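seq as requested:
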Amino acid sequence: MVAIVPSEAELTKLLNEKFTCSFRPGYVTVQGFVLPKRYLELEQRIQDFEVFDTDLWICGFPKTGTNWISEIAWLILHDLDYEGAKELNYRRTKTLEQVIYITRNPMDVSISYYHQSVNYEGFSGTLDDLCKLFLFDKINYGPFSKHVLSFWEKRNSRNFLFLKYEDMKRNLSKVIQGVAELLGKRLTDEETARLQEHASFESMKTNPAVNKQKIMEQFEKSGGKIKSPFIRSGKVGGYKSEMPEHFIPQFHYWMKKRFEGSGLDLVNV
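struct tokens:
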């Protein structure tokens, strides 16, 4: 297919003019990834960060379902402590020597990323602008494909679980059992059913801890304007009703080229 490829200078200008705010004044490229400029202040601390073989790492590109799977993992590790799960705590995840990685159809990711960026990250561009940044690897924390494939290559490693957002939507009970098995926990059918209800999308939308309610309130007090909740739609294939039509074939072509030969299918999910 024929597509107009923007220049590196055009993409960099678009990123810096449309995707900056007081807490993200600029960007740097580190090992091929686009990161907030503040990374330079934290680089040495990150390099010196002590990693233990008892750590649990929940990883994923923004807007792929990390908050969702974190809620499930925390509850399984803490014997289904639903009261404790009501507290918003970035450090609340108990540690084990495991890795859980979650990904999602990048077209849905880009739409969700756009709404979050407009609401909470100072993005002043259009959906077209964000799709362009996404496709041509200038999106914050991108490239998406490099991020995903770096973990996909480790999917058969010991104590590693690779998940798709779409599988969670399709069969949440099966995903819950898979996470429990990875974490060395056993759940009864009744416990699984209750956790499935708690972790349903409808329940997550009304859960203040998962829906970042306190953070949103602080953001509004500081002058921010929120147009949609943190957990917004969550639909599989929701991009079809929002993405500009001319970008859909571009994304399909991009996905075929980026993931061809990897064995990972993020289109037919």
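Strands lie at 27-30, 33-36, 56-59, 98-103, 160-164.
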